[in-house]
Design goal:
- It is built from three helices and 14 strands.
- It is an alpha+beta fold.
- The protein has a single domain, classed as lipopolysaccharide transport protein A fold, CATH 2.60.450.
- The C terminus is likely disordered.
């Protein structure tokens, strides 16, 4: 007769041991996934937002301490465009008009920080109290004491700062001030590159100023 103890050991070997091994494997996978950056979560969230923007019933995201990277295609390769991080990101589905038309997802960010890249090197960093991200164009609008600081210590402060991801420019609005070691420029609006080297401004007396890169770097910008 077969020993009951042997039968018990056989059953454990056949059924219990594989289940235990599978459980250990799944636990390890879970630990690895939790240790990964939340950039993966946000990236998938952005893709789902983009693909389902017309669906009013789509689930909204609410993620804390997030970060994600936006890439731009340069020739045949992908380069970093910007890295956006913040204390909290929420997506909402606002409705407008008397017919309550759903216009898609809106991403709101608390205490955003965005680093802009050129040739895969960080050249400037912007921060503000809040931000709104366009999930389709990947444009970013920063609100409340917005500040842009370049690697060579040029500083732009304004009420609002808007990033256009298509033409790679920034639009600063409201109480705009650019500070460099040689200049302080005040304006109502400024359109600039991410390095604060080539820009157009509207002065407080509403006249257009064109600041050329060479003149600006030498502290010789003249009003036209």
């Amino acid at each position: 007769m077969t020993n009951p103890e042997n039968i018990k050991k056989m059953l454990i070997t056949i059924f219990v041991l594989p289940i235990a091994v599978l459980g250990i494997v799944l636990l390890c996978i879970g630990i690895i996934n939790r240790s990964k950056s939340k950039e993966v979560i946000i990236r998938r969230g952005l893709e789902s937002i983009q693909s389902s923007r017309a669906s009013s019933g789509a689930e909204n995201l609410d993620v804390g301490n997030f970060s994600f990277t936006e890439y731009a295609k340069i020739s045949s390769r992908a380069e970093k465009s910007y890295i956006l991080s913040g204390e909290r990101l929420q997506t909402k589905s606002p409705k407008f008009g008397i017919f309550r038309i759903n216009v898609g997802k809106v991403m709101e960010v608390e205490k955003p920080k965005i680093s802009f890249y050129k040739n895969n090197l960080a050249v400037s960093t912007a921060c503000a109290r809040t931000a709104v991200v366009n999930s389709l164009s990947k444009g970013v609008e920063l609100y409340g004491n917005a500040t842009l600081t370049t690697e060579d210590k040029r500083v732009l402060t304004c009420n609002e700062l808007k990033w256009n991801n298509q033409d790679k420019t920034l639009l600063a609005e409201g109480n705009c001030i650019i500070r460099t070691p040689n200049e302080i420029i005040e304006a109502e609006e400024i359109t600039t590159d991410i390095e604060l080297k080539n820009f157009n401004v509207i002065s407080k007396d509403k006249r257009w100023l064109k600041i050329a890169q060479e003149a600006f770097s030498m502290g010789m910008g003249e009003e036209k």
